[in-house]
Amino acid sequence: MFRQRVRLTLHIVGSILRYLSLSYTIPLLVALYYGEDWHIFLYSLLLTLAIGLSLELGFKTAREIERADGFSIVSFAWLIIPLLGAAPYMFLGWNFIDAFFEAMSGFTTTGATILGKVEVLPKSALLWRSLTQWLGGMGVIGLLVAILPKLGVGGSQLFVREFPGPMLEKLRPRIRTTAKLLWEIYAGFTFAEIALLYFLAKLPFFDSACISLCTLPTGGFTPTTTSIAAYANPLAEYIIIAFMIAAGTNFVIHYQVLRGNFKMLKDEEFRLYLLFLILGASLLTFSQGISSYRDSLFQAVSIMTTTGFATCNFGLWHPGARMVLLALMLIGGCGGSTGGAIKVIRISTLLKHSRMMMRKAISPKAVMPVKYNQKPLSDEIIRDIISFLFLYLIVAAMASITLGLMGFGIETSLSAIAATLGNVGPGLSAVGPALNYAWFPAAGKMLLIICMWLGRLEIFTVLMIFLPRFWRR
Q1: How would you write the chain as a 3-class SS string?
Q2: Which of 19, 38, 259, 410 can pair with 31 through a Cys bridge, CB separation 3.0 to 4.6 Å?
């Protein structure tokens, strides 16, 4: 079984890399347009294609993808894709750790960077940074499931493992159709934001494209060092706020609303999500003063949706405001959105479960199911949510302690782990929005890379492959 699983995993990962190599053609064409060195993307394309074909053809198998195979395929794909996605940075002269960090941050839509000055990169490399986030937002594997019949029924095992958040509802019985619809909505929102930023807010087209490619995946990379603050454009900020809120919303709701089903706006998770955003923005405004309302609203939305854009240096804000931001980092967006962290659906379910347990303490024999939108949730879903939260907090605590043992301060350690495990990007203190992660030692960067990997695949998928029993089944 071990050999069969490894063979199937390498074969499918090879197929994924073969198609991923096509994505390098976009920055290659941009490099040609701007007269930049296009060879770095040609070499990256050929390297990715060669490795992909070698794995795909060298490990051919007729074995169908089973449930357990989804864990190994998705875990290794999300490790190898950033490894090869780092190639353009290495051809630019970066060392391996920094290139891997930037690529992992891109594909996992974290937005943490080692760049002190972003503008030093050629435009083609800036676009590649943004493109990695866009591909990673809804998921590289999800895109291939949507367009490749080859993955067949087994594609559902991959899509479920990669999909951000608990998937309580499919749009269509066939997972391929669901993946296709989600990607169509995702791409539609992206093009709409580009148009609004360019035509309405009058931002440069290149900047509009880069920002939009990083908004919908809640990524946070920008073509400027000072993020969105560089534009000092209130209209652009409000447009970005609207699309960040959309990106942090369950895409099932978008689908239903676009079909005219406005009852979905009464969804319990969506209402709690808006409540958290309003409460967070209000607390930040109260802490910083009424004149800061625009920055407070922007940062509340940016941090809770785990986008990570900045319009000011919130690392210098009042300690209470920074605590609010740290809490929003942990909550994250809705399940089924491109947001990271714990997610509102899990918070909502745990609040209801805790309330039910307190009521059961008074009436032990009473039957009190935990409901979501008036429908009972299965015990299996509740157990999964409790287990996820436990593992999430354990990983966060252990990683924070490890950074502390490396000599980092408490606020830096806690926020760096919250920002990378939750795929947020900027943290607080020494990793605030005006700073970067370049000064971390190699061991610290590798720890944060692992956190980004774990966070994007929501802990379980990655940890499963480290169980000896998994490879014997």
Answers
A1: CHHHHHHHHHHHHHHHHHHHHHHHHHHHHHHHHHCCCCHHHHHHHHHHHHHHHHHHHHCCCCCCCCHHHHHHHHHHHHHHHHHHHCHHHHHCCCCHHHHHHHHHHHHCCCCCCCCCCHHHCCHHHHHHHHHHHHHHHHCHHHHHHHHCHHHHHHHHHHHHHHCCCCCCCCCCCCHHHHHHHHHHHHHHHHHHHHHHHHHHCCCCHHHHHHHHHHHCCCCCCCCCCCHHHHHCCHHHHHHHHHHHHHHCCCHHHHHHHHCCCHHHHHCHHHHHHHHHHHHHHHHHHHHHCHHHHHHHHHHHHHHHCCCCCCCCCHHHCCHHHHHHHHHHHHHCCCCCCCCCCCCHHHHHHHHHHHHHHHHHHHCCCCCCCCEECCEECCHHHHHHHHHHHHHHHHHHHHHHHHHHHCCCCHHHHHHHHHHHHCCCCCCCHHHCCCCCCCCCCHHHHHHHHHHHHHHHCCCHHHHHCCCHHHHHC
A2: 38
